[in-house]
Write a structure and sequence with these properties.
The protein is α+β, with helices and mostly antiparallel strands. Helix content is about 70%, strand content about 10%. The chain has two domains: about 250 residues, no CATH class; about 45 residues, no CATH class. It has a four-stranded antiparallel β-sheet. A hairpin with a 4-residue loop joins strand 2 and strand 3.
């Protein structure tokens, strides 16, 4: 990583951790390659089926093998997207662990930070440099991976083997939330690193705290934007591609009865519900149009928590070291 344009503690930080920073970049390359491969693989599978003169759902026995290879190819392409999504899901924890451990706690534990502070570098400027370098890498790489994921997911095999926009791993892999989650990991990792001051312990605690924060966000996500409600018949056709949070039937008096109230065979569930007074279906849901409102609200929450974590980190540094 070039350090020509960097000066002072920023140059020192980049040079000191250049191997780890290169590793981060190297890990991003396979993720990008997997997404591109998934998209090209899906296209190639479609072209192979078309070249064989077959179509999906063909009853021609000669197309059996070609169609089987088509579905197998799309399944493989989908798995590549899913594996990348899992990587994006754990990325904030990795960012937090890296910042908390190797970048901060190790220097505080070994005492090497004292050398920097004797070179006319204040503690606050030292910490700012430690944050600026990984933050710049995150701001550059994560949006690129997010855009690439969105392209591969929306135009690739997702339509044939459905994955939905509200699936936790898909939701956290495109839009603006991936960057917000990564910055949250950076902020929490900074606070943990200064507080714990032990490299291995700080890495574990940072990963744990970041994971808990992301789990809390996933739990609160349905309530970040007002849900819509529909009442009537055949709602499944009217809420397609929607994130259904609750559904069931309503009685003549307006009381709600969830489908989980009738644990029975599918063919008997309706009779069970109507027997309890159900007269119409209802569904509380987020339509696909709520994707961006949910993303923006969650991003705002992440940035607010990140700002608080960084504020606490700088105050802790000033309290301990003046």
């Amino acid at each position: 990583m070039s350090t020509i344009a960097l000066k002072g503690p920023y140059w020192t930080t980049t040079r000191q951790h250049r191997k780890a920073l290169w590793v981060v970049i190297a890990l991003a390359v396979p993720a990008a390659a997997a997404l591109v491969t998934s998209r090209l693989w899906a296209d190639g599978t479609v072209e192979a089926l078309r070249a064989a003169g077959c179509a999906v759902g063909s009853t021609d026995r000669a197309c059996f093998q070609a169609e089987r290879e088509y579905w197998d190819g799309l399944w493989t392409a989908r798995h590549l997207v899913e594996y990348t999504a899992l990587g994006m899901l754990v990325l904030p924890g990795l960012v937090g662990a890296f910042v908390a451990g190797p970048m901060l706690a190790r220097e505080l534990e070994s005492g090497t930070y004292k050398l920097a502070w004797t070179q006319s570098v204040s503690p606050a400027r030292w910490l700012a440099a430690k944050l600026a370098v990984p933050a710049a890498l995150v701001v550059v790489l994560v949006p690129l991976l997010s855009l690439l994921f969105s392209w591969a997911w929306r135009t690739g095999p997702a339509n044939d083997y459905p994955t939905y926009w509200y699936d936790p791993n898909v939701y956290a892999s495109h839009g603006v939330v991936p960057l917000a989650h990564a910055l949250l990991g950076l902020g929490l990792g900074t606070a943990v690193g200064l507080l714990v001051r032990r490299t291995v312990v700080a890495m574990g605690v940072a990963a744990l705290v970041t994971g808990l924060a992301l789990a809390a966000l996933a739990w609160a996500r349905p309530g970040l934007w007002p849900v819509e409600t529909l009442t009537g018949r055949e709602l499944s056709l009217r809420v397609s591609d929607a994130w259904v949070l609750e559904n069931g039937m309503v009685t003549a008096s307006g009381e709600r009865i969830g489908w989980d109230a009738c644990h029975t065979y599918a063919g008997e569930s309706l009779a069970c519900m109507t027997g309890r007074g159900g007269v119409a279906d209802y569904a509380d849901f987020h339509p696909s149009s709520h994707f961006w409102p949910l993303q923006l609200v969650e991003t705002g929450v992440c940035l607010a928590v990140t700002a608080l974590a960084l504020l606490a980190a700088f105050r802790l540094l000033r309290t301990r070291h003046g």
